[in-house]
């Protein structure tokens, strides 16, 4: 698992003392480790791809324990390539059907699973608000980023403070699509039109998402440039079917003095 963190001072703290410092954590998984057998080997975190449910549950437990929160503090979602956003306050109960999760609760991890689509991790450390979004071709074009940012601002986030990580995804050199589809997506997600190494039409969703974020006033954007199709340490639906799903996870916590 690859991990990262950012720190900031929270806004709006009560009392006469200094405002608490908030640290945002991010984790990206690979295929390494885990219990899943081929073709889902080994650290598959998707429970909708035909893998042994017991293996997936074991992998999710391992993830929760590995990030130091426990599996009961990791929230998942049933992703459907839509634009619905679920605001969550805990990881219990029924799993929401949505393509983005948002929370303002500390040490509640939000997980998105992908195998070519773009995992988008967003945070306003100053407000103590984080989000995890699933941006596939349809969701990205239909406005999943806008809906996610709207939900974040309703919890106190400010767009100009939001920091974003675009995780591993299929790259423009490999995401070949018909020319009509490329043009249709680029019309609503400008910047996403691309071409493969042999000159055929393709999509670069991360490029389109970066432009969309800039248009929305989000300028603090980092990109994990790994291509899921080319990196055999990552899952890719286009490279092999069936296959597993990697997870991108984010949460926030109060920084220790």
UniProtKB/TrEMBL annotation:
Residues 1-23 are annotated as: Disordered. Keywords: Copper, Hydrolase, Metal-binding, Oxidoreductase, Transferase, Zinc. InterPro entries: Cu_polyphenol_OxRdtase, Cu_polyphenol_OxRdtase_sf, Cytotoxic_necrot_fac-like_cat. Pfam families: Cu-oxidase_4. Its cofactor is Cu(2+); Zn(2+). It comes from the Bacteria. The keyword Oxidoreductase applies. It catalyses: inosine + phosphate = alpha-D-ribose 1-phosphate + hypoxanthine; adenosine + H2O + H(+) = inosine + NH4(+); S-methyl-5'-thioadenosine + phosphate = 5-(methylsulfanyl)-alpha-D-ribose 1-phosphate + adenine; adenosine + phosphate = alpha-D-ribose 1-phosphate + adenine. The keyword Transferase applies. One of its GO terms (molecular function) is hydrolase activity. Belongs to the purine nucleoside phosphorylase YfiH/LACC1 family. Homodimer. Purine nucleoside enzyme that catalyzes the phosphorolysis of adenosine and inosine nucleosides, yielding D-ribose 1-phosphate and the respective free bases, adenine and hypoxanthine. Also catalyzes the phosphorolysis of S-methyl-5'-thioadenosine into adenine and S-methyl-5-thio-alpha-D-ribose 1-phosphate. Also has adenosine deaminase activity. This is Purine nucleoside phosphorylase. It comes from Actinomycetospora succinea. The lineage of its organism: Bacteria, Bacillati, Actinomycetota, Actinomycetes, Pseudonocardiales.
């Amino acid at each position: 698992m690859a991990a990262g963190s950012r720190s900031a001072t929270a806004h709006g703290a009560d009392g006469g003392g200094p405002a608490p410092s908030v640290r945002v954590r991010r984790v990206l998984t690979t295929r390494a480790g885990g219990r899943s057998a081929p073709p889902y080997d080994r650290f598959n975190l998707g429970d909708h791809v035909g893998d042994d449910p017991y293996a997936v549950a074991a992998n999710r437990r391992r993830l929760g324990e590995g990030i130091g929160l426990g599996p009961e503090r990791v929230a998942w979602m049933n992703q459907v390539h839509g634009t619905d956003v679920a605001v969550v306050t805990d990881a219990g109960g029924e799993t929401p059907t949505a393509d983005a999760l948002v929370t303002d609760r500390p040490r509640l991890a939000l997980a998105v699973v992908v195998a070519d689509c773009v995992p988008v991790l967003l945070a306003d450390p100053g407000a103590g608000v984080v989000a995890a979004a699933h941006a596939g071709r349809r969701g990205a074009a239909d406005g999943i980023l806008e809906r996610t940012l709207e939900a974040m601002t309703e919890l106190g986030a400010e767009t100009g403070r939001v920091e974003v990580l675009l995780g591993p995804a299929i790259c423009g050199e490999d995401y070949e699509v018909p020319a009509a589809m490329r043009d249709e997506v680029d019309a609503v997600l400008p910047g996403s039109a691309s071409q493969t190494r042999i000159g055929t039409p393709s999509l670069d969703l991360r490029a389109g998402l970066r432009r969309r974020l800039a248009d929305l006033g989000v300028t603090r954007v980092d990109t994990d440039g790994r291509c899921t199709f080319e990196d055999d340490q990552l899952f890719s639906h286009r490279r092999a079917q069936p296959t597993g799903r990697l997870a991108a996870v984010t949460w926030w916590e109060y920084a220790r003095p």
